[in-house]
């Protein structure tokens, strides 16, 4: 209702944990796009994160995510970003760094 009153266009960011609402158009530039541009440039060490089993937490098949080649390709949208990177994993990592979230 407020949308119609203000003339705003509502768009949705897709998240694999929640169903996509077919009545709401999806964002053309989503959080994944922003993460792909920001993380390799500002915090490339994020891709060195290991899982509890010691494997790279954000591995991408066919790519060595710990290299600058991957960082450059990702930043230019020529390499895929791990599906495991989302707002939740970014927030949890920040809380772990601050000592608030258990490892």
Features:
103 residues, mainly alpha, 4 helices, 0% strand
Q: How would you characterize this protein structure?
A:
Helix content is 35%, strand content 0%. By secondary structure, it is mostly helical. Helix 2 (31-42) packs antiparallel against helix 3. It is elongated.
Quick synopsis:
The chain is mainly α and 103 residues long. The protein is built from four helices and no strands.
Give a count of the beta strands, DSSP E runs of length 2 or more: 0
Alpha-carbon Rg, integer: 16 Å
| Helicity, as a percent range | 25-40%
Shape: elongated
Average of pLDDT: 87
Secondary structure tally, helices: 4
What fraction of residues sit in β-strands? under 5%
The end-to-end distance, rounded to whole angstroms, is 43 Å
| Subunit organisation of the chains | single chain
Low-confidence stretches: none
Largest sheet: none
Protein structure class:
mainly alpha
The helix-strand sequence is: HHHH
